[in-house]
Amino acid sequence: MLTGKQKRFLRSKAHHLDPIFQVGKSGVNQNMIKQIEDALEARELLKVSVLQNCEENKETIAEQLAENTGAEIVQIIGNTIVLYKESKEKKRIELP
Q: The domain 4-84: what is its CATH number?
């Protein structure tokens, strides 16, 4: 689990990122989970945008993504979810 200090640090890092995934009407599927896992391994920190036409609420989607990818939810702001997972191979972010 991330501490408050680590979450603040990650939020400041994520501020400049653009969402690279979008969850739409069909919700979360296995293909999306696999792609997000790969992206987390490469980047460690990423944003997922939840579109207006998505039928599930963003908290449910964030929990599904975090559970299935092993990532931590850094924050949910507006329709954007910020996820963090430490990379096994390409560790870039040094947590405080």
A: 3.30.110.60
DSSP 88: S
79: amino acid identity, one letter: N
What does the pLDDT look like over 43-92, one tens digit per residue? 999 999 999 999 999 999 999 999 999 999 999 999 999 999 999 887 88
Indicate the burial class of 29 (C-beta count within 10 angstroms; 0-12, 13-18, 19 or more).
exposed
Domain spans of the chain? Answer: 4-84
DSSP result, 14-49: HTTPPP-EEE-TT---HHHHHHHHHHHHHHSEEEEE
44: left (phi over 0), alpha (psi -120 to 50) or beta: left
pTM, two decimals, is 0.94
> Can you tell me which residue has the tokens 């689990």?
1
